[in-house]
Design brief:
By secondary structure, the chain is mainly alpha-helical. The chain is globular, with a radius of gyration of 27 Å. The two termini are 43 Å apart.
Length: 414
Amino acid sequence: MQPTLMYQLAIVVALGLLVGLQRERVEKTVAGIRTFAIIGMLGVFAGVVGATVGDWVIAAGLLSLAALTVMANVLGDRAGQRDPGMTTEVAILVMYSIGVALNRGYMIEGIVAAGVLALLLHWKAPLHDFAERIGQDEFAALMRLVLIGLIVLPALPNRTFGPYEVLNPFEVWLMVVLIVGISMGGYVAFRLLGPRTGAIAAGLLGGMISSTATTVSYARRSASAPERSSAAALVIVLASAVVFVRVLVEVAVVAPGVLAVTAGPLGAMLALMALIAGALYVFGIGSHELEVEDQKPPSELKSAVVFGLLYAVVLVAVAFAEDRLGQRGLYGVAALSGLTDLDAITLSTANLMQAGQLELTTGWRMILVGGLSNIVFKGGVVLLLGSRALRGRITLAFGAALLGGAAIMALWPG
């Protein structure tokens, strides 16, 4: 049902007041709190008239508004009051377009666009600060992500072929883009927070970027600084807990239809890991303040290609195991794949579950087996590289996690 004209005007005036209030509070501009509301109304009425006489009215309104904005800037420049930027001018045109969109039935989209516009205007300082803090390596990583996601992905064929008809180049590379994007988000958070932070933030960020790399790094650090073993243990366990957050996010993105089945047992494992991390925090001895280990941008092309190949191999291996080896073979593939990388077995299993090629109860157990295998691998890293104090803490923590995970697999219904 199309909202009434009065309802459209009420919404656009409220949105215009919001955006205009932000502009007027920050700086002298060509448009303030009243002007943005009026501009939104102009957009609505342009949509109304355009529906009757033709959409050229909308274009004419946009051009007229641009001309008025230029004139206001020229007059302000002569009076020495002109803002050298063009943010407000562009915001004016966007507000007009939002008014037109609301009139044409894009109510939710228009409201969201106005909210995003207000936030972008308000976040001027932190966004500029973030841009200044991005170095050459970070910018190069961003461009590699653009290459991976916006250039390579659309060029790949979207069809299945190969053994068991489970290999789709487009879908395989889409999983690469997803994993690189998640890790890139963790890296951006790391850059925003800076290197000096607490063990909790270090563990959360490490899990988002790479829990295995985080484990290796802090195990080595504890060997040279045993007094930091308590904080290092907390970081490693937290990073391992965040892995299960990543798993749930990945399932929700690639296979939302099976999330209801997998969320319970995997969420229980996440809760167990969080409980163990909480115990380490409460009963740990020593400072939890430390510097986060420096991280490299996670969009290296070589790593992306390697993950894509690993994901493809896991897909074929799971299909082969299901066809030839039975359930034990499936769990064996999950355990081997999960040793160093849980993402590949999670994504492959979730896709097969979504397609109906794998039983749901078997699928979530495979993911959990991969997660437990990953915990075993990181425990081995700590035993090999960590200090004596860290080895003791991680043995207790990961031992409890493995027992709890085994109990979930055995006792969870279904």
